[in-house]
Specification:
The complex is a heterodimer of chains A (about 425) and B (about 270). Chain A is an alpha/beta fold and about 425 residues long. Chain A is about 45% helix and about 15% strand. Chain A has helices at about 25-40, 45-55, 65-75, 90-105, 120-130, 140-145, 145-155, 170-185, 200-210, 210-225, 240-245, 275, 315-325, 335-345, 355-375, 390-400; strands at about 10-15, 15, 65, 75-80, 110-115, 135-140, 160-165, 190, 230-235, 255-265, 280-285, 285-290, 325-330, 380-385. The longest helix of chain A has 21 residues, at about 355-375. The radius of gyration of chain A is 20 Å and the shape is globular. The relative contact order of chain A is 0.15. Chain B has about 270 residues and is α/β, with parallel strands linked by helices. Chain B has a domain at about 15-145 and about 210-265: Aldolase class I (TIM Barrel). In chain B, β8, α10 and β9 form a beta-alpha-beta unit. In chain B, α2 packs parallel to α4, α2 runs parallel beside α12 and α4 runs parallel beside α6. Chain B is globular. Classes of the chains: A alpha/beta (about 425), B alpha/beta (about 270). The interface between A and B is large, with 35 and 42 residues.
Chain lengths: ~425, ~270
């Protein structure tokens, strides 16, 4: 089966994906799929999307040769600078695409779930730009530890609803958004934040963020005259990773590496590594790898990075893992923070802690690839977001905040 | 009694079936058995045992809270089977309501086998649509468990026909677009949905759930549906009571009121 022709018509990537949802949502998912199919071949829609990405979001993002980092890790490193996009991460690509789809479907309201608040801020941004009502569900634990992002969303005109049930984090925010959608589906588009959830979301989100990979591939050919040896990305739900992987999937010589949040170590049970530390099941509308107990109850995930702190992963990653086309490894909090500091000090770039997982993983594989290839390997790393939102967490982690600075206990963890 | 017999008997009596829902293990395994037996004695024709799940996206705050309490107390899938066995052992007709992942985790065929052995006659799957249910359909056929899928006001006529075609026993019609939980009035979408189901299959019994909590509402739903499904209002009897004895007393009294309702809906 051709890897780039997936999903099949029912939204399956091999045994993964599909639609495990209440019947009430099926018509909305069918409508969304139909709207997406027609938008995909509509030059007017495509031009509008491309125009917003170019003039508003600031893409194509740069592919930057990071010389001092290259020297430090023993590889030729090219950073895909998604951190320079408007709102500071790759997520703006997805929200612009989906908000345009909402307009096309005539739905005046969008809802979104958010963990750290990045997808919520991006959704609120797109909603403001395109004049849509926006409601963001956010676990109460997260609204407390990410108060600045709550303020950002409200400045942009969104309503933020703190979710007080379950573990009060991202997965519960997602549950609550689904409950809202079941009741409001006639007027509302669910602006899902990652390449997971029921079909057709994994495919739509992948395609909207897929510019990361097509740009990076072209930039490699233009700047290097060849393709890289490896592409590395962090994986939580997996949108930035699938975005950069997808264009490279047919290039069999290009190794694809996804780095999951290993938290305190997969062996401790306190992690968010769904593929390397989880098992196959059904969560939030799709079959995939997830963190679950013996009875199939979802387990809480742990990561220093709020954006990776999710107990599932998109179904296409589960499929790429099973087929061996991509390789997934865990990166611990400590490894990620070492890489975070390395990028700050060598390149003057403060990365999102999410992206620091990809940097740490690249540093790990560099000597292995060098040995295998007998030369310095070329690695493209998706620098999926900037670290402004993480300054407090990182400052506390490194103990460099002034003493009278208020530190919220358990921030991002 | 099988589900078909239960609906057949009610029809012969000129009334609707009352289905009462309670999460397994809420607030403890033994207390949930007591609750379910009390519901059956007070007039619930079918006991719908809900398997507590960490991410119940079709459920409103009452069932979420009760499920959380049961899970926090350590209830396991095997406890749910034990509860079903105890309640079915009293002669009650028992069906299971469960989200899909716990079943997939247990093993679909093994679960169907053990569910049948425990004495359940059917299973309701709120987040499993027939499109994804191949393995479940085969296992349910093997162990003769009635499959109940949901249909919704948003379902197209084609999907209603397809879904009802895969149901055995009865089909669950969600009265409104939303999650479980009592409402002040019965949804106006429900009679239309029931009519569309009957057009697809006049013989399939239709149970209507979501938003029913009083005897009067039960009577209203009974006037157009074969079964009335009540969950949150019953669970709240226990959830909001100062102690369990009071909770069980309220549960009996509401069950009796609802049982009267399903008998008031249709003239003999």
């Amino acid at each position: 089966m051709s890897l780039d022709a997936l999903p099949d018509l029912a939204g399956h990537f091999g045994r993964f994906g599909g639609r495990f949802v209440p019947e009430a949502l099926v018509r909305a998912l069918d409508e969304l799929e139909a709207a997406y199919r027609s938008a995909k071949t509509d030059p007017v829609f495509q031009e509008r999307f491309a125009g917003l990405l170019r003039d508003y979001a600031g893409t194509p993002s740069l592919l930057y040769r990071a010389e001092r980092l290259s020297e430090a890790i023993g590889a030729e490193v090219l950073l895909k600078r998604e951190d320079l996009n408007h709102t500071g991460a790759h997520k703006v690509r997805n929200v612009l695409g989906q908000a345009l789809l909402a307009k096309r479907m005539g739905k005046p309201r969008v809802i979104a779930e958010t963990g750290a608040g990045q997808h919520g801020v991006a959704s609120a941004t797109a909603a403001a730009l395109l004049d849509l009502e926006c409601v963001v569900y956010m676990g109460q634990t997260d609204t407390e530890r990410q108060a600045l992002n709550v303020a950002r969303m409200r400045m942009l005109g969104a309503t933020v609803v703190p979710v007080t049930n379950g573990s009060r984090t991202l997965k519960d925010a997602l549950n609550e958004a689904l409950r809202d959608w079941v009741a409001s589906v006639d007027t509302t588009h669910y602006l899902l934040g990652t390449a997971a959830g029921p079909h057709p979301f994994p495919e739509i989100v992948r395609d909207f963020v897929g510019g990361i990979g097509t740009e990076a591939r072209e930039q490699c050919l233009t700047q290097l005259g060849r393709l890289p040896d490896a592409v590395a990305a962090c994986v939580g739900g997996g949108s930035n990773a699938i975005g950069i992987f997808h264009a490279f999937v047919p290039d069999k010589a290009v190794r694809l590496y996804g780095f999951e949040a290993g938290g305190e170590g997969v062996e401790t049970g306190r992690h968010a590594a769904s593929i390397t530390g989880g098992s196959v099941g059904v969560l939030h509308g799709n079959r995939t790898y997830l963190l679950q107990d013996e009875d199939g109850q979802t387990m809480e995930s742990h990561s220093i990075s709020a954006g990776l702190d999710y107990p599932g992963v998109g179904p296409e990653h589960a499929w790429l893992h099973d087929t061996g086309r991509a390789r997934y490894e865990p990166v611990t909090d400590a490894e990620a923070m070492t890489a975070f500091q390395l990028l700050c000090r060598t390149e003057g770039i403060i990365p999102a802690i999410e992206s620091a997982h990809a940097l740490a993983g690249a540093a790990r594989i560099a000597p292995q690839l060098a040995a295998e290839l007998g030369r310095t390997p070329t690695i493209v790393i998706n620098l999926s977001g900037r670290g402004d939102k993480d300054v407090h967490t990182a400052g506390a982690y490194f103990g460099i905040l002034d003493q009278n600075e208020v530190i919220v206990p358990g921030e991002n963890n | 009694m099988s589900i078909a017999e239960t609906f057949g008997k009610a029809k012969a009596e000129g009334r609707s079936v009352l289905v009462g829902c309670m999460p397994a293990g809420f607030p403890t395994v033994d207390d949930s058995i007591t609750s379910m037996v009390a519901m059956a004695e007070a007039g619930c024709d079918v006991i719908e045992v809900e398997l507590p799940y960490s991410d119940p996206v079709m459920d409103g705050p009452v069932i979420q809270k009760a499920s959380d309490i049961a899970l926090a107390a350590g209830v396991r899938t095997r406890d749910t089977l034990r509860i079903i066995e105890a309640v079915a052992g009293t002669g009650a007709t028992v069906v299971l309501m469960t989200y899909w992942n716990p079943i997939e985790r247990y093993g679909v065929d093994a679960f169907a086998r053990d569910l049948a052995a425990a004495g359940a006659t059917g299973m309701i799957t709120p987040d499993l649509i027939p499109d994804e249910a191949g393995e479940w359909i085969a296992a349910a056929d093997t162990y003769r468990i009635d499959r109940t899928f949901l249909v919704s006001p948003s379902s197209t006529d084609e999907r209603i026909a397809m879904t009802v075609g895969q149901c055995r026993g009865f089909v669950y019609a969600t009265a409104l677009m939303g999650v479980t939980g009592a409402r002040t009035s019965v949804s106006s979408q429900a009679p239309d949905l029931v009519g569309r189901i009957r057009a697809a299959d006049p013989a399939m019994p239709v149970g209507v759930g979501l938003g029913v909590g009083t005897g009067a509402q039960a009577a209203e739903v009974a006037s157009f549906a074969d079964g009335v499904i009540v969950g949150s209002a019953l669970i709240r009897c226990v959830l909001e009571a100062p102690d369990l004895a009071t909770g069980h007393q309220r549960l009996r009294s509401l069950s009796a009121e609802l049982a009267e309702g399903v008998r008031a809906g249709k003239p003999l």
